[in-house]
Write a structure and sequence with these properties.
The protein is built from ten helices and twelve strands. The protein is α/β, with parallel strands linked by helices. It has a seven-stranded mixed beta sheet with strand order 1-2-3-4-5-6-7. The protein has a five-stranded mixed beta sheet with strand order 8-9-10-11-12, with no helix packed on it. The longest helix has 27 residues, at 247-273.
């Protein structure tokens, strides 16, 4: 999960007071799509763990929710926020990936009646002792904010694709839940509404901030980005950060994410070929990438997180090179 990043991320100040309830961040994005937006920080008692985004779509016959935030209390606040907009039943919760800031609030949505949908990798994650150890660490960090939080398993798992249908204006609307490839994690899902061009991308697309490459696969992540770039996406709703609401912004974010991954992979391969081991790569990778693109020095948390990414990607590249022999 994000344990290493949790230890190394630099806190960024939040403009004004932290919201006492996530409803304070509620934004109406389209006629039927709403979102709440966490701060870009590491988890702390001050922000109550509210560091990611969650979204919901209000159809005529029910609500579809995307991601559940990082505690049961925040999940309850998400339910309350939905209830401030509509009294329609909460029918589905789609978890884009099983990282703690996206699924720890799932119990609250499940209690509200939602079927919890995730990739089957979620069950593998939950079966590992590391998932419970991280849960204990998060309880220690957040204290009372974690009251009621449980490691909630999905009630429906998918390995590839699933279409959900809800009624809008007396017609069935299709919500495409897709697993494109291993990317940010081994079990990333995106949700696409084709006739509206709305894409809930989870943590696959980043806009000018460093992605975490320690839980999935950097090579196949590039394939995901290439596939998404072919779709007619008009609004991209990421797991963190701001709404991308026009094609130019979306293209820029997809290209930026892909270019960082490509640069990191190329730099590590060159360093391995020059005889650099993993410790050498971690030590020199910041300088190497800044040589390739000086703008990386201005990216938030670059100097701390880039060596962490390099550590994981080093072993990916090393394995790929062994397979080439």
């Amino acid at each position: 999960m994000h344990l290493l990043i949790l230890l190394v991320l630099i806190s960024f100040s939040f403009a004004g007071d932290y919201p006492s309830h996530i409803k304070e961040t509620l934004r109406k994005i389209t006629n039927r799509v709403y979102g709440v937006f966490g701060v870009y920080e590491q988890v702390s008692p001050k922000n109550r763990g509210f560091i990611s985004n969650a979204y919901f779509y209000v159809a005529d016959d029910g609500v579809l929710v995307v991601d559940a935030l990082s505690t049961y209390k925040l999940g309850k606040e998400l339910v309350e926020t939905i209830r401030s907009v509509t009294d329609k039943p909460i029918r589905f919760l789609v978890i884009t990936h099983y990282h703690t800031d996206h699924f720890y609030g799932a119990k609250a949505l499940k209690e509200a009646g939602a079927e919890v949908i995730a990739h089957e990798y979620a069950l593998e994650y939950l079966s590992k002792p590391s998932s419970y150890n991280f849960f204990l660490a998060r309880k220690k960090l957040l204290g009372k904010e974690m009251e009621g939080t449980e490691l909630t398993a999905p009630s429906i798992t998918i390995s590839k694709d699933l279409n959900i249908y809800l009624t809008v204006n007396k017609e069935l609307k299709e919500f495409q839940v897709k697993h494109l490839c291993k990317a940010h994690t081994n079990g990333d899902l995106v949700i696409f509404i084709p006739d509206e061009g709305v894409l809930f991308s989870g943590d696959i697309v980043f806009d000018g901030r460093l992605p975490f490459l320690g839980s999935g696969n950097s090579k196949t992540w590039l394939q995901c980005l290439e596939e998404i770039s072919k779709w007619n996406v008009k609004i991209l709703l990421p797991g963190h950060g701001e709404i991308l609401d026009n094609p130019e912004k979306i293209k820029k974010a997809i290209n930026w994410t892909a270019q960082y991954i490509k640069d990191l992979r190329r730099a590590i391969r060159e360093m391995i070929e020059e005889g650099c081991d993993v410790d050498c790569v971690r030590k020199k990778i910041n300088e190497k990438l800044i040589e390739m693109n000086p703008e990386y020095a201005q990216v938030p948390v670059f100097f701390n997180v880039n060596p962490v990414n390099a550590y994981y990607v080093y072993f990916e590249i090393e394995n790929e090179m062994l397979m080439e022999e």
